[in-house]
Write a structure and sequence with these properties.
Urease, subunit C, domain 1, nine-stranded parallel sheet, 9 helices, about 25% strand
């Protein structure tokens, strides 16, 4: 049993300036004002010292990090997951980009095999498969040799229970709507991305069950006053949640602010789209067979195209606040309650409330990560008294 005292809680409904959380069996037993929630005698006590305690962060688009690329080496998912709590991340979707279909099958096998003995880290909630059903005209850093038309047979066993949570595709391609409809019917979150969809084609995709969009503004046709395209739909339709990479390179801060004003905390989901060079020095790093040049700020192919990012999710939260002036509670919602709801996990993750998984992130006044708990275990701590 674990008791966290004197934390500034961000709960679903309100902020509690002097709060406490009681945890047992990896779940939250109680959370509320410290004065009304005394510590049980048998509980280990951790002092938050007035720091912010938020739900654990969830990243829905993460290609790799710390020198490892999931598409090139799916077996590295677990060692990378062990380090993600350093960024406040407690759950994520390992993202497999365009590659032969046996690569995503191998990644699912890694998840099926489960974590190594003694593992403590961020939980992989299933894969995000980004490709190969993408539009060649907006392929970005995806390998054109492996792009293919949407294929029901190729994705016949893709489902959450089989390790696939989210699929990015270009629904305007032949067979795209049929595949989107089939995946959504199995409970997969279907996303539009790397697409040349018109506004009408985006509307058809929404009707087919699409509920997400991959990295707003990137790899989609630009907004036009006579043909709004996908962006026009994403900025106006409440049914769909939009992913956004707020690193200051993929999207100008002014357009991050525009997206925020249009969609707010329940329609916007911050992602990193981080690649294997995250947390590493400048140099050359792999991304699905490409050689990516990293200069410490961006990751690019030889021709200058962006190839993922070097963004940490805690930095994404800070950037959103800096670019928009939004409140911490709203910024945190974009990486907690909003992605949990999108994945159908709103009753399990993304909030500090009784019965929820005890995934928690402790933030300093400058919003850097002090400690992270995954399923009630301290997975990362910069505070000596919090180390296991």
């Amino acid at each position: 049993m674990l008791y966290i005292a004197h934390a500034r809680l961000l709960t679903p409904a309100r902020e509690i300036p002097d709060g406490a959380v009681l945890i047992d069996g990896g779940r939250i037993l109680a959370a509320g004002p410290a004065a009304g929630l005394p510590a049980p005698a048998a509980a280990r006590r951790l002092e938050a010292g007035g720091a912010w305690l938020t739900p654990g962060f969830i990243d829905l688009q993460f290609n790799g990090g710390f020198g490892h690329d999931f598409t090139s080496a799916p077996e590295t998912i677990w060692p990378v997951a062990a380090r993600l709590p350093e960024h406040g991340v407690t759950a994520f979707l390992p993202t497999i980009v365009t590659a032969p279909l046996n690569v995503s099958a191998a990644a699912r096998a890694v998840l099926r095999a489960g974590p190594p003995a003694g593992f403590v880290g961020a939980a992989p909630l299933g894969l995000h498969i980004e490709g190969p059903f993408l539009n060649p005209g907006k392929r970005g850093a995806h390998n054109p040799a492996h792009l293919r038309l949407p294929d029901l047979a190729a994705a016949a066993d893709w489902a959450p229970e089989a390790g696939v949570r989210l699929v990015t595709l270009a629904a305007e391609l032949p067979g795209g709507l049929e595949l989107a409809r089939a995946l959504a019917g199995r409970g997969v979150c279907v996303s539009l991305g790397h697409t040349l969809a018109t506004y009408a084609e985006a509307q058809a995709a929404l009707a087919a069950g699409v509920r997400y969009a991959t990295h707003l503004f990137n790899a989609m046709r630009p907004l036009d006053h006579r043909e709004p395209g996908l962006i026009g739909l994403l900025l106006t339709q409440p049914e769909i949640v939009v992913g956004l990479i707020p690193d200051g390179h993929h999207v100008h801060p002014a357009l991050v602010d525009l997206a925020w004003r249009a969609r707010g905390p329940h329609g916007l989901n911050l992602v990193t789209d981080a690649m294997g060079a995250l947390g590493m020095p400048p140099g050359r790093y792999p991304l699905a067979g490409y050689d990516v040049i990293v200069d410490g700020q961006t990751a690019r192919l030889e021709d200058g195209r962006l190839a993922g990012s070097l963004l940490r999710l805690d930095a994404a939260v800070r950037n959103l606040m800096a670019f928009t002036g939004c409140a911490l509670a709203d910024a945190v919602a974009t990486v907690t309650t909003t992605p949990a709801r999108l994945l159908g996990l709103a009753g399990e993750r993304g909030q500090i409330a009784p019965g929820y998984v005890a995934d928690l992130t402790l933030l300093a006044p400058d919003l850097t990560v002090l400690a992270t708990l995954t399923a009630g275990s301290v997975a990362y701590a910069a505070l000596p008294g919090w180390k296991e």
